[in-house]
Amino acid sequence: MKTSHLLNIILSIALVIVTLMLVLHTPEKETEDTTSIEPTAQPEWHQIPTDSANINSFTLFQNAAALSVGKLGDMNSMTIGWGELGILWGSETHVVTVYVRKSRYTHHLMEENETFTVEAFAPEYADKLKYLGTASGRDENKMKGSGLTVKLMPNGAPAFEEGNLILECKKLYTIDYPTAQMDSNVVSRWYSKGEDFDNIHTAYVGEITAVWVK
User: What is the percentage of the chain residues whose pLDDT exceeds 70?
Assistant: First the structure.
């Protein structure tokens, strides 16, 4: 009897030990993670062939784009709603033409630099583009004030991380648009202050050296 009782005690103790080991080594059941995952700040940019970019010139400029130019320590960006895309001086030369009034702060940067960017944005950035089109780089740092993230492109010109299309451009040709060669209705509507106010536009034809999209 004593042996049988002792054996029962040993078996009971062993059963308790085995049970404890199973509890301690059983992995916890995975629970569903309901924590919201923040999306990546911005999708990655990638370069595409210029001749396959399929850019609608009307949409690009009617929706407004950003023209950015300069180098670290001296750069600026402005909203543009006028421009053209096309081919010039050879079928392999894809170009964009942009227009900058001589009175704009961006004008001297376009004169001093050989490269620039033209960038398109999604509709939700309309307020940022409005700021770039109304504030002056003479009075404030628009690159910082826009709240956008500045990035330098391979050609050295600035752009913004938040856009969805970037054209890297190299200046090929520059010409002023004097009012003497314009239709009178165009002059009265767009240049009523006269040329003495440095109010005419300069056209910059830039070769599109790279196209970047997300």
Answer: 80
Q: What single-letter amino acid sits at 144?
A: K
**Rounded to whole angstroms, what are the CA distances from 161 to 39, 44, 170?**
15, 9, 20
For the domain made up of 46-179+199-213, the CATH class stated in words is mainly beta
Tokens 């003479």 correspond to 138
pLDDT for the residue numbered 12: 60
pLDDT greater than 60 at residue 189: yes
Predicted pLDDT at 8: 57
User: Can you name the residues that pair with 211 across neighbouring β-strands?
Assistant: 48, 167
The pairs formed by 82-85 with CB atoms below 8 angstroms and a separation of 24 or more are 83/57, 83/118, 84/57, 85/55, 85/57, 85/60, 85/208
Give me the residue spans of the domains in the chain: 46-179+199-213
